[in-house]
Amino acid sequence: MKALSVIIDTDPGVDDFVALMLAKQNPQLKIEGITTVAGNLGSDKVTQNALNIVKFLELEAPVIRGARSPLGHSLESAEAFHGEGGLGGVKLPQSNQKCIEQYAWDFIYEKAVSLKGELEIIALGPLTNLAKALKKYPDLSQHVKTITFMGGSTGRGNRTPFAEFNIWADPLAAQIVFESGIPLKMVGLDVTTKGVLNETNMNKLLEYEHPYKEVVKQLLHFLQQLSKQMGKDTVMLHDALAVASVICPPLLTYTACYSEVEIHDEKYRGQTRIDLEHVTRKQPNVEVAIAVDTPRFIHLLEEMLKY
């Protein structure tokens, strides 16, 4: 089967690291490039983390720096939730590789055009780079096959009671993407909070012998401690689930809905308003994930480590 050509737009980030590991280990994905966006941490840190991860995983993919700040306001990162250096305390060898001398939005557009409509984008952070690409190149929507993004929710939030972090971090960018006409798949908190690892699952994953074992162990233990601080006993791999859903589409169940983002009211900033009942009678613009096959997700993680 022909590999899917993907750009991974990311802000590493602990679970971004696991997501990139999953993407690298699966031959169904051809990673055309890794674009970075300020989100979990500032631009310099997420870009250097991406370069270090590419070196560590021996990924044959260029890294391209993207937006340093959201559209319309300053960056409010989630650095406190990602540990020292942003990777849960994992210290990777410093990469001497340099980013491509190009902006992420230009790279996205040029790659989309060159692949003649076959490019899929997996967005794991705020959607700033994609919004900038759409604003600069209005015809981008004609060249992208689909965008799968980790973000949003039909109800709950994790940055505020109403908003998920990636959308909250740049709501205007998210709204631009929602209005783009590109086929969108939303992998939000409705499923990422259900596709979880418990103690038994984690111990089984750590049984496999592979070059990344110690790093995986550190990442999972960091996330486990973070979950315990929040009163939970399971680990969520938000971004890894988004990548897994591209590798294995039956993993998630979707429903097509009209969706929009709150960009004016600060109290509800970044809330994704999902018309599940079709009461607006507006044309659906997002495929919203509403259910996950958790055992299948865990199996994919196991296969990643075996591979």
TrEMBL record:
One of its GO terms (molecular function) is purine nucleosidase activity. It comes from the Bacteria. Residues 6-298 form the Inosine/uridine-preferring nucleoside hydrolase domain. One of its GO terms (biological process) is purine nucleoside catabolic process. It holds the Pfam family IU_nuc_hydro. Gene3D superfamilies: Ribonucleoside hydrolase-like. This is Nucleoside hydrolase.
